[in-house]
Amino acid sequence: MPRTGRLTATATLLAAISVLATACTGQSGAEAADDPDKDVTLNFWHGWSAPGETKAIEENIARFEKAHPNIKVQVTGNMTDDKINQALRAGGDKAPDAVASFTTDSVGKFCNSRAFADLNPFLRKSGVDKAKVFPKTLLEYTQFKGNQCTLPLLNDAYGLVYNKTAFAAAGITEPPRTWSQFTEVAQKLTKPKGDSYEQVGLMPTYHGYETTPMRLAAQWSPTYFGADGRSNLAKDPAFAKMLTAQKDLVDKLGGYEKLERFRNTFGDEWSAEHPFHTGQVAMQIDGEWRASMAKEAGVPFEIGTAPLPVPDDQAADYGKGYLSGTIMGIASGSKKQNAAWELVKYMTTDTEAVVAFANAIHNVPSTLAALESPSLQVSPEFMTFLDIARHPKSSTTPARADGGTYQLTFEDFAYGVEKGDVTDIPAGLARTDQQIDTDIAKAE
C-alpha cells in the first residue's frame, strides 16, 4: 500500500527538516572513505508497515546480503520522516545510513539542507548513467539544482479506476477521454438520494483522497515555475483552466456542501470500506494499487482502469498523468557511505530487485529496464499505469527548497475556489504566487 508523495506527510515534515540546513554538512560521495568490501553493518530505515510490504523489503535485503556477504543490514520499518530527521540530527551509531522515504515533495529540502549525500559521485564511480537507467520525470523529482541526493525506488502513476458494471448499467461503453466527456459521464453515473446520494459518478472535491489539485493540474501540463525561478501560477493559463473546470464539475454534481456531506460518510482510504469498493463512487482518481486493493476487498463488480481525461484542447495528449514515487538516499552524516551506496545501488538500479519489489507491493517499477522486464507481473488493469508512467507528457511537481510548502499554498487556494469563497481566480493566483515566492526565498 503506497503512501508516496503525500502532502499530509509534508505538512508535518517541514519543521523537522528546516533545522537540517545547519546541522547536516556531511560528506560528499567523492569524500567517502569507508571500504565497502570490509565487514560492516548498515542501518536502513523505511516507512513501510503492512505485513506484505515489510516482507517484500526483507526479501530484497536477503538477496542483497547474499550478493554482498560482508554487508549486514539492520532494517527498521514504519519510520516517519519526523523520526528519520530527528535521528539524522542526533547522529551516532544508531542513526540511519540509508533511508527510503515516501515524501517526494521534500526532495528539495533534503538536497538543499545536505541532509542526504549527493549521489552523483557514487553514480560516476560505479559507471551508472542515470539518464539511461531512470525515466526522465523520476530523475526530475529526485534531484534539486543538480544535486541528486535521492534516487527513485518504485514509482506511482495516477489515473482513473472505474466500475465497469455501473458504466454498463448507465449505457456507457468506454471511459471518458476528454474533460467534457468526463463531466458528462460523472453526471450520468450520479444517483441522488434525498439530500444526499446513493452513488456519485466521482467525488471531485480536493479532499477526495488522491483527487488533489496537483493530480488534476497535471492533465493541463502546467509550468509551476518560470525560467527565473519565480512562481508561475498566474502566468500559465493551465492553472486557472483546471480550477475552473473542477469547480464546474463540483457544481454539476450537486455543489460543494452536498458533496462534502456525502464524502464524510466514506470509509478509510486504505481499508475495504473505501467508497469505490462499496459502490458509493463509480470512478476514482487513484494510483496503480487501487484495482488490486478492490479485488482483494471482494468487490462484486468488474473493474476498469484508464488514464485520467485531458482538457478538450489537448485530446492528442490523452494517456498522460501525474507521477510520484518513493525515494532512497544516503545520510550525509553516515561514516559508511560507500557501503550504503552498494545497498542504494542494488535496490534502485538492479532490475531483478526492482521488479521483485514492484510485483510484491503492486507499484510501478522505477527503471527503464524493469518497466520492460518479462518478469514483471502485469494485469490488464496494471498495464494502464505502466503506459501512463511511460507517456512522454506525464509529469510531476518540481522540487523546491521549501519542500512541499508551495504545493500546500496552491492547495489552500484551490480549496477556496471549489467552495466558492474565491471568485476572482486570476487575482487570487497572483497573490498565491507572491506567497510562494516569499516562502521559497525564506527557505533558501
List the helices and strands and how they pair.
Blueprint: H1 7-18, H2 20-23, E1 40-45, H3 51-67, E2 71-76, H4 81-90, E3 98-101, H5 107-112, H6 120-126, H7 130-133, H8 136-141, E4 151-163, H9 164-169, H10 179-188, E5 191-193, E6 196-202, H11 213-217, H12 237-252, H13 256-263, H14 275-278, E7 281-287, H15 290-296, E8 303-306, E9 323-330, H16 337-349, H17 351-361, H18 368-371, H19 380-390, H20 405-419, H21 425-443
Parallel strand pairs: 1-2, 1-3, 6-7
Antiparallel strand pairs: 3-9, 4-7, 4-8, 4-9, 5-6
Name its key features.
disordered N terminus; globular; alpha/beta; single chain; 44% helix; 13% strand; nine-stranded mixed β-sheet; 444 residues
Please outline the major beta sheet: 9 strands, mixed
Structural class label: alpha/beta
| Overall number of strands | 9
Question: Rough shape?
Answer: globular
End-to-end distance, in Å? Answer: 34 Å
Average pLDDT figure: 91
Strand content: 5-15%
Helix fraction, binned, reads 40-55%
Count of discrete alpha- or pi-helical segments spanning 4 or more residues: 21
Low-confidence stretches: 1-26
Order of helices and strands: HHEHEHEHHHHEHHEEHHHHEHEEHHHHHH
Integer-rounded radius of gyration? 22 Å
Can you describe what's shown?
The chain is of the alpha/beta class and 444 residues long. It has 21 helices and nine strands. Strands 1, 2, 3, 4, 5, 6, 7, 8 and 9 form a nine-stranded mixed sheet that branches.
Compact description:
The protein has 444 residues and is α/β, with parallel strands linked by helices. The protein has 21 helices and nine strands.
